């Protein structure tokens, strides 16, 4: 690459600007030929804008991406967690549907920068947090993704272990290592390796995988529904089971934190969706692809899980929410193999897209000279093995209220800052070259924007400061970490997003929008 960026200044001197390419007919912007920044502290090939000619994902690609990500075992189990808390199936499906309509809004807002500028999430975060400060939200997002990667990989490994054990028999009786059969560890390791092998080949391989994985998983879920319906002769008593909460005063204290938990399920992607939309052929592709793919798919999948589970209650006398355990009930080898392949594809499609792509870019942003996209993916896989996040799914209380609530509050705070900076302060206009250039308008004070850090700190405290757990059921004190903030804890994602958005907007009113060239406001 041609060197166009001088050494990073530690003072207020602004080097000559590097021009952006003139926007094309669809408003997409790229770097002008011969003007590629090459400071290794802030640039590598994976972080640079996707060239205009390589931004070719269509509406179908984005819709297929969401279908592939939404159709997974944890998504299937969301309704069961809500039913376990006392909702009936209609309340559970309504909560899930509403949550995904709500989370779609920040998804589309942050996703806008992807097709327009071709940049991933950590580079977009530089506009608000600064070139160095962007590592703060990026590493938070990466940590969450690593935990989710561990959860999903373990769930996939257990699913493979269960179904192969049914086919071959005796797997559960194998000698134990660390309290688990060695055959389970083998399934976990093989599944882990398969995931990383796919993502190692790059984003275009992921696009092709999602294109055919999405319809395959839908077919698998429908086959499961037809099988249990025929076996049950109907859908069983679960559909007639009344709500334990009703629609009165007992319902709402459960509904709102549950809604925030369902929002938090995909709040991670509301931050790093530019990692995918940067490959979009235009705004229409990402807008319609996401709108058609996310809320409809999650609602459809929630309905499928309820109907299938209700049928299982009629057949086996008790509801079986876990689709792997349900498939394992059959003695048909073909059915078991089909179920095994479906579980494999469904879990891989969500895990590599939702939980490997983001930390791969986030870690590359931390040290571009040493960490590429592929190296970041490998680091994610290693961290996912070293931690044991499957403990989070043991109870609905811990999973929905503690884990998802805490994650949602923190990530909602970051989303509020990104949206305020990109849409309100800058009106979607960025100086593309300066996102990679020390000393430019996004350098702020030694690479950090104190406004974003302050908004993040205040919003984060308001969002999660009141986190509490029932006695003996979680890591937080019953009265809340900060007792007077306890009433806000059930609304963590909304509180974090709204408070950080308002505060950053107020603090950022003095920032100069990118309508003219010139030095950034310090």
Automatic annotation (TrEMBL):
InterPro entries: NCS1, Pur-cyt_permease, Uracil/uridine/allantoin_perm
Single Gene Ontology MF annotation: nucleobase transmembrane transporter activity
Transmembrane segments: 62-85, 91-109, 138-162, 182-200, 212-230, 250-271, 292-316, 336-358, 370-392, 398-420, 450-471, 491-511
Domain of life: Bacteria
Key word Transmembrane helix present: yes
Main localization category: membrane
Gene Ontology CC terms, in alphabetical order: plasma membrane
Keyword Transmembrane set for record: yes
One matching Pfam family: Transp_cyt_pur
Localization terms from the record: Membrane
Bilayer topology term: Multi-pass membrane protein
Region (Disordered): 1-38
Keywords tagged on the record: Membrane, Transmembrane, Transmembrane helix
Biased composition (Basic and acidic residues): 10-23
Family in the record: Belongs to the purine-cytosine permease (2.A.39) family.
Name used for this protein in its record: Nitrate reductase
């Amino acid at each position: 690459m041609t060197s166009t960026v001088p050494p990073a200044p530690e003072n207020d001197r602004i080097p000559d600007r590097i021009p952006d390419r003139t926007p094309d007919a669809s408003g997409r912007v790229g770097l002008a030929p011969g003007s590629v920044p090459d400071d290794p502290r802030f640039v590598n090939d994976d972080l640079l804008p996707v060239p205009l000619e390589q931004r070719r994902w269509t509406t179908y690609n984005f819709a297929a991406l969401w279908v592939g990500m939404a159709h997974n075992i944890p998504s299937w189990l969301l309704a069961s967690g809500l039913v376990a808390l006392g909702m009936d199936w209609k309340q559970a499906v309504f909560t899930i549907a509403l949550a995904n309509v709500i989370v779609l809004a920040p998804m589309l807002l942050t996703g806008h920068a992807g097709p327009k500028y071709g940049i991933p999430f950590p580079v977009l975060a530089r506009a608000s947090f600064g070139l160095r400060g962007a590592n703060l939200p990026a590493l938070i997002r990466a940590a969450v993704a690593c935990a989710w990667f561990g959860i999903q990989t373990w769930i996939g490994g257990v699913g493979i272990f269960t179904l192969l054990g049914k086919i071959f028999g005796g797997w559960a009786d194998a000698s134990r290592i660390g309290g688990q059969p060695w055959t389970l560890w083998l399934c976990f390791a093989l599944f882990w390796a398969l995931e990383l092998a796919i993502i190692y080949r790059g984003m275009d391989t992921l696009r092709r995988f999602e294109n055919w994985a999405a319809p395959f998983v839908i077919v698998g879920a429908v086959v499961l529904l037809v099988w249990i319906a025929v076996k049950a002769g109907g859908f069983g008593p679960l559909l007639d089971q009344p709500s334990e909460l009703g629609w009165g005063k007992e319902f709402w204290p459960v509904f709102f934190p549950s809604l925030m938990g369902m929002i938090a399920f995909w709040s991670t992607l509301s931050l790093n969706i530019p990692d995918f939309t940067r490959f979009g052929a235009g705004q229409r592709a990402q807008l319609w692809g996401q709108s058609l793919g996310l809320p409809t798919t999650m609602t459809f999948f929630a309905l499928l899980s309820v109907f299938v589970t209700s049928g299982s209650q009629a057949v086996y006398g008790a509801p079986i929410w876990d689709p792997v355990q349900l498939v394992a009930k059959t003695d048909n080898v073909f059915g078991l193999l089909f179920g095994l392949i479906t579980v494999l594809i469904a879990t891989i499609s969500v895990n590599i897209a939702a939980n490997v792509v983001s930390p791969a870019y986030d870690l590359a942003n931390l040290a571009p000279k040493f960490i590429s996209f592929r190296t970041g993916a490998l680091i994610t896989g290693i961290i996912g093995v070293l931690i044991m996040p499957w403990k989070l799914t043991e109870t609905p209380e811990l999973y929905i209220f503690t884990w998802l609530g805490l994650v949602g509050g923190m990530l909602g705070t970051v989303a509020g800052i990104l949206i305020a900076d990109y849409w309100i302060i800058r009106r979607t206009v960025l100086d593309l070259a300066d996102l990679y250039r020390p000393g430019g308008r996004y350098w702020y004070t030694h690479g950090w924007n104190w406004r974003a850090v302050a908004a993040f700190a205040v919003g984060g405290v308001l969002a999660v400061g009141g986190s509490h757990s029932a006695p003996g059921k979680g890591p937080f004190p019953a009265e809340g970490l900060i007792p007077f903030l306890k009433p806000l804890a059930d609304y963590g994602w909304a509180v974090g997003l709204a408070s950080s958005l308002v505060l950053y907007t107020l603090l950022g009113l003095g920032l100069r929008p990118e309508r003219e060239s010139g030095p950034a406001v310090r």
